[in-house]
Structures are given as structure tokens and as C-alpha cells.
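I am still getting used to C-alpha cells and would like to learn alongside you. To get us started, please write out a protein record for me. Start from the sequence, derive the C-alpha cells from it, and show both lines together. Once you have written the record down, we can walk along the chain together:
***
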Amino acid sequence: MDSKLFETLIERKNTGSIKWDYTGELYGAKDLLPMWVADMDFPSPEPVQKALIDRIQHPVFGYTAPPAAINDAIQTWMKKRHDWDIKKEWIMFSPGVVSALAVAIQAFTRPGDKVMLQSPVYTPFFDMVTKNEREVVNNQLHIAENRFSIDFTDFEEKLKSGVKLFLLCNPQNPGGRIWTKNELTQIGELCHKYGVPIISDEIHGDLYLPPFKHVPIASIDERFASLTVTLMAPSKTFNVAGLQSALLITENPEFQKKLKTVQDRNAFHGLNLFGLTAMEAAYREGEEWLNELVDYLKSNIEITTDFISRELPEIVCMRPEASYLVWLDCRNLGLTDEDLKKCLIEKGKLALEPGTKYGPGGEGFVRMNIGCPREILLDGLQRLKKSFS
């Protein structure tokens, strides 16, 4: 592996980066090291950069439709990466997974309907439910042996209460947990039993860390596939979030019709030219880069877990099975969430995501992004230690 690719420090300040240019504004302090928002400090794959540069050489940037080749690239990628056979007719596009969540909530539910999620979970799950005037029903996750687990008795009870839609996060964010085929089968069986559609956010699915392997829930069983809309994107995988391109995949024609109706109502007519260009190049030529990235992330995770167990034994590090986000249990420090934040910002000069953003079960936790060159990671770990010294 050419680790130099991921060791290079790239100056991101003054590029409009939310992570590097707006952290001070968001956290109320200057000179913070940003290890919060989920984008990486690595260059996107060279084939993606080249495809964008080549396209820019053509001086006309008019209205754009997805080229036929992009469907082929997506289908090939899903088969090779996830052993999932999909048809081009199942593929829809969205500017992002959060936008797709909103569209799905509007398509499958009405104001006042119950939508189930599993906290602690990615903040927009809550936001998209409440901002669309639906009711959040929470099947809260538990921690067993330092991994998230699902209370399936509560899961079924909540479904019985009249839930109209279930939002699944797999791999789970913030914990990095990949739900097993057995767990996904239990989810699918119960949702099928009660006729509840599944919106499965699998945006971190490409970033599975062997020996763990991501399984799309729609790939397991035809019954689950007919109930599911899978949300994926190249954004987290290939660090192209600023190009705003994502996928909705469903084989159910009625679901497609409902989703398209809402997209049309909101005047969404397709992705921008550069989002399409990057997506096709990433899925067609990005695998070698991704494999090297995964090796680097695994090393970063080893360094992080070793450092914390040695230097900060009061903090328990949940080892991710996918992605570059580490969920840190700080409850043994005996600090309030406000004090946690204060120590990190004022003593350590470190910006992490507070666990309270992820809903019930996030209290006393913080999320740390280790998708960065080793030099930044080591600086961040020293700042974490200083925060609580």
C-alpha cells in the first residue's frame, strides 16, 4: 500500500470547508482541531479528479441527463462490492442521502404518522421526521460487550403501535456497527409481518473493515427487497460529499412511483453534471484506492484504540466495523455533557461531535473522526488526553 497518498497534509482552510473554515463559528472558539463532521482529509481518488478535469476541458456545462454508462458502473459496483444484483430500472438519484430521507418520509407517510428509528443515530434521522411533522418512535439501541444491539421485543411492540415507516442505519452511525445477516433478517421479517416499509441508509456500507462485511438488507430476501428503499452514495466512500450525488435503489415499482411524485413536487430533475461525472468515475475506477484507504483506516483505528486504552483508560472506545468514526464512551469521567464539551474546547482545543446530538443513549459520549493523516490523528489524540488531564 502507498501510505504516502494518505499521509500528505492538504491545506483545506479557505476552501469553503465546513470542517476547517466554520468550526470556530459553530463551536464558539478559535484554534480548534476539527475532528467532528464526517468528511475525510484525504484527496479523492485520482480517477475521480481526472474525470472532473477532463469534463471541465469541454467548455459547455448545459442541462445534463445521467449517461447510460453510469447505471452500468453502479450495477457492477454493487455486484462486486456487495454481491447484490440490481437492475438499472431500480436506480434513482438524489442530491444526498438526507434529501432522500426527506423524500421517502413524504412519500410513505402523512403528517402525524409514526416513523421509527433507533437511537443513538445520525441526527438528520430525527430532523427529517420532526421537520416533516411526523412522530418519532424510538427503538433505542443497547450496548452489549461494547457493541450496539437491538431489543427485538421492543422493536415488534413499536411496530404494533402503528408505525408507518422504519429508518434503518446500516452500518450504524455513530457506532460503526454492521448489522449481521441474522439481525437484518429479524428486522426484515418483522417489518414484512406488519407491512412497514424500510428506508435503509447504507451510505457507509462501502467502508466496511474486514473481516466485517456489509450486507444490504434488500439483498437478503425478495420479501425484504420489495419493502426496502436503499440509500447509498459515493460521498463518504470517496470523499466527494461536496458534489452532492446519491442513490435511491428499490425494485418496488409502486415505491418508485411514490418517490418520483415527491421529487417532481419538489422540482428535483436530476444530479448536477459534476456529481454524475464523479459518481461514474468513482464506481468504475475507485476500488483500488478504496482498498488502500480501508487499510489505512484500520491502522488509524488501531492507533486510536491503543492510545485511549493506554493513556485514557476511563474512556471506552467502541471499535467501528465500518467507516472512520469512533464512538467514545466518556461516562466514567463523571462529567456532564456540557462539561465534556467545555474540557474538549477550552483545554484540548479539540472539536468532536457531542453524543447528545444522536438522541437518547448518546449522553456521555462523543464521536471522533479519524479519517485523516496520521500526523493530524496523533495531534488529536494528544489533545483528547490534554482535555481530561
Observations:
- The chain has two domains: 4-45+288-387, 62-285.
